[in-house]
């Protein structure tokens, strides 16, 4: 047993990757079983029964745990590099020690400039910031995190300077303190440079790169309570600034839709993988799990053989046994295991695509991988969210919104290479939101007759719209399926001559 543990330590986690994956799967399955959170019905998994949650930010937050971990890894990586340079350029290092007060003063001066400019930029706002503010823009650039590094590094430089005023390095402790001083100086200079670049880009460049935040508007439909304090005042929602935002969203959407893969789509539907077709969906997820598990086994076997040579057989045997056991459990009828595999390698809810060649694609509702289909969903729902916010929270009059919507429909009609119910999905969805507020657009009828009625796709269209509105309103409707009466009216209206 002792020998086996030593071997595992030598190869680390890389030598037992199948064991690691199986452990994660089984641990999650046990947690689900113990907490009795196995999904018995698909709706139980998506319905938000805990209303009146705390208010959520519409734009994504920073994962500080990952950021700190990355920061530590980078720091550990540069320490040997700096140590080698110190040895190679020893004379230069001693000159720096003799002038350490000057270096410290430079760092303090750079920090003062960064803090001053940070105070200035926080009060800066551009006219087209209507669904986000300068705070969200700065969050996008991780401005606060970089400013924190500037301040902390300045403090560390000041403290280490006080301990190195004698200008000598006579012990290991002196070397460690000077190494900390060097790293802090490097971080300070890099952080200040980054902050100044961000400020210059925001204040003086006219590229409107901040509008990329609009791509996150799809997150609006994820929460039942959204923080609206970042929205600009109603009087600033004029046609000029609205055009800037919509134009950016539409250009991004067109870049995606004019791709051959999206143009080849025949239908789209928001579905669950836990209904009558759950066997089909689970087989797909199980296949991905098997492929990953077997691939990890061969990778670990190769690493074990390269590191341990002829002593690798025990670890390989363990990997084989764990792989077989994990596959057997995956093929079993244990609900908790099935749910974990479905969660990890698919999802219980998502968008189901069918192409003209009858190829099937499934995009989870929260997709980790950013392929063309997930980008299409995010872009579509970001456009939907912008108009939904406009209709719900900004009272600008029906005429203004209808005119803007007419321009959107015309823009899509003129610039889409492939006109289908999939590529026109945002127009039809926004049309329903407008219909709910008694805004009826006749131009939408013409588009509907041209691309839906002429191809005899009424049933597919209604199924697509039903699933889409269900997904977008699930957190806002107090009663399940309460949207259907209004949606049926919408169908009758759009089908009327």
Describe the overall structure.
The chain contains 20 helices and three strands. The relative contact order is 0.11. The model has no long low-confidence stretch (mean pLDDT 83). With 497 residues, the protein is mainly alpha-helical. It is 66% helix and 4% strand. It starts with a helix and ends with a helix.
What is the beta-strand fraction?
A: under 5%
Topology order in helix (H) and strand (E) letters: HHHHHHHHHHHEHHHEEHHHHHH
If strands are numbered along the chain, what order do they take across the biggest sheet? 1-2-3
State the low-pLDDT regions, or none: none
Helical content, roughly?
55-70%
Largest sheet: 3 strands, antiparallel
Whole-number tally of structural domains: 3
Instruction: Calculate the terminal CA-CA distance, rounded to whole Å.
Output: 80 Å
């Amino acid at each position: 047993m002792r020998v086996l543990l030593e071997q595992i330590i030598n190869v680390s986690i890389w030598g037992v990757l199948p064991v690691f994956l199986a452990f994660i799967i089984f641990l999650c399955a046990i947690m689900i079983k113990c907490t009795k959170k196995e999904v018995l019905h698909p709706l139980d998994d998506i319905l938000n029964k805990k209303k009146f949650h705390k208010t959520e930010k519409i734009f994504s937050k920073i994962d500080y745990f990952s950021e700190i971990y990355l920061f530590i890894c980078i720091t550990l990586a540069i320490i040997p590099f700096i140590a080698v340079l110190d040895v190679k350029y020893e004379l230069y290092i001693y000159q720096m020690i003799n002038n350490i007060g000057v270096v410290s003063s430079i760092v303090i001066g750079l920090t003062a400039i960064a803090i001053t400019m940070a105070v200035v930029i926080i009060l800066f706002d551009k006219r087209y910031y209507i669904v986000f503010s300068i705070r969200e823009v700065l969050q996008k650039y991780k401005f606060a995190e970089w400013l924190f590094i500037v301040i902390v590094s300045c403090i560390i430089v000041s403290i280490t300077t006080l301990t190195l005023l004698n200008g000598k390095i006579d012990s290991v402790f002196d070397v460690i303190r000077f190494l900390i001083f060097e790293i802090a100086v490097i971080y300070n200079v890099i952080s200040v440079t980054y902050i100044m670049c961000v400020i210059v880009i925001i204040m003086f460049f006219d590229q409107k790169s901040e509008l990329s935040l609009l791509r996150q508007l799809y997150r609006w439909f994820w929460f039942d309570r959204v923080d609206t304090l970042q929205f600009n005042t109603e009087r600033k929602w004029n046609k000029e600034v609205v055009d800037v935002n919509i134009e950016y969203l539409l250009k991004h959407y067109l870049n995606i839709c004019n791709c051959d893969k999206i143009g080849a789509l025949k239908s789209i539907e928001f579905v669950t993988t836990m209904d009558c077709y759950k066997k089909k969906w689970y087989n797909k997820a199980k296949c991905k799990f098997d492929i990953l598990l077997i691939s990890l086994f061969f990778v670990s076997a190769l690493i074990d053989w390269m590191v341990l040579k002829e002593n690798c057989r025990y670890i390989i045997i363990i990997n084989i046994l764990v792989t077989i056991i994990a596959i057997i459990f995956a093929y079993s009828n244990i609900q908790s295991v099935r749910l974990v595999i479905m969660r990890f390698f698919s999802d219980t809810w998502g968008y189901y695509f069918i192409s003209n060649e009858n190829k099937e694609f499934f995009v989870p509702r929260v997709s980790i991988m950013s392929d063309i289909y997930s980008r299409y969903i995010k872009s579509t729902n970001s456009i939907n969210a912008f108009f939904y916010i406009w209709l719900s929270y900004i009272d600008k009059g029906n005429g203004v919104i209808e005119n803007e919507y007419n321009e959107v429909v015309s823009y899509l009609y003129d610039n889409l290479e492939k006109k289908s119910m999939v590529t026109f999905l945002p127009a039809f969805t926004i049309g329903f939101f407008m219909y709910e507020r008694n805004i009826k657009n006749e131009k939408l009828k013409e588009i509907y007759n041209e691309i839906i009625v002429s191809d005899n796709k009424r049933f597919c269209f209604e199924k697509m719209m039903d699933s889409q509105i269900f997904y977008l309103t699930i957190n806002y409707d107090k009663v399940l399926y309460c949207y259907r009466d209004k949606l049926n009216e919408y169908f009758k209206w759009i089908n009327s001559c």
